[in-house]
Amino acid sequence: MLIAGFPAGAWGTNCYLVAPAAGEECVIIDPGHQATEGVEDALKKHRLKPVAVVLTHGHIDHVASVVPVCGAHDVPAWIHPDDRYMMSDPEKAIGRSFGAQLLGELTVGEPSDVKELADGARLKLAGLDFSVAHAPGHTKGSVTFQLPESAEVPSVFFSGDLLFAGSIGRTDLPGGSHDEILQSLARVCLPLDDSTVVLPGHNEHTTIGRERATNPYLRQVAAGLGADDAPRRGM
Question: I need a surface site. Which of 17, 99, 113, 224 has the fewest CB within 10 A?
Fold first, then answer.
């Protein structure tokens, strides 16, 4: 399997291109702010042909390049229906005062072909088999994508802004909920095998086993403590 990732734009959002191997079809995950050039460079370097864009959630730092990327390659974008509005109204999604500082010159809107994700869906794209889990808490429509284990590689879990190495996504923006993100950690993350690789959108990947041992949020959830007992992340 080929996973090519890079941090994009002012927010350093990780964008991923996933394919069975170089020279084949691929799926693009979270083409955020100023990701277009990085996407094109990775496509050229690995000789990939995109067939779809899939989005872990609708915040502008994850979707800002969806329209140009989908338009350039005539591919659909997949997003959970609860977050679909964010593509055309990102200011509503991140708050008016916060949005005014961040949006600036960004052009927003939906690509011409938008498909909606559902909890438990299976996306068979580019020869890959993604399992979709609805994981609200960072946003109402946050989802995760998981690829199954194979003889060559362990299972890979694209967590979006649900789970990071040692932390979790912020919950203080519109649609965020600390209680819901803890519930999503318990329902979506805890059942995963320890060897599952997590690509969380920060500078390093981790595994579920490592997070069970070191991530204070996952440890609190695993211990059966409620939201009031769990540590809270700021920014």
Answer: 224
- Give CA–CA dist 77/113, Å, rounded: 6
Q: How many CB atoms lie within 10 A of CB 36?
A: 19
Amino acid (1-letter code) at residue 47: R
- How far is the C-alpha of 96 from the C-alpha of 158, rounded, in Å? 29
Kindly state the tokens that stand for 19. Answer: 């394919």
Task: Collapse the DSSP code of 42 into the 3-class scheme (helix H, G, I; strand E, B; otherwise coil) and give the result.
Answer: helix
pLDDT in tens, 22-78: 999 999 999 988 899 999 999 999 999 999 999 999 998 899 899 999 999 999 999
Euclidean distance between CA atoms 84 and 86, whole angstroms? 5
Tokens of residue 90, six digits: 């990102």
- How far, in Å, CA of 220 to CA of 232, rounded? 11
- 139 to 81, 82, 121, 135: CA distances (angstroms): 11, 8, 19, 8
**Distance separating alpha carbons of residues 1 and 187, to the nearest angstrom:** 27
What's the CA gap between 222 and 225, in Å, rounded? 8
Whether the CB-CB separation of 111 and 76 falls below 8 Å is answered with yes
All residues at 6 or more sequence positions from 164 whose CB lies less than 8 Å from its CB, including other chains: 200, 201, 202
pTM of the model: 0.89
Query: What is the model's pLDDT at position 90?
Result: 73
Ranges of the chain whose pLDDT falls below 70: 93, 95-107, 201-204, 225-235
Amino acid in position 101: Q
pLDDT of residue 62: 92
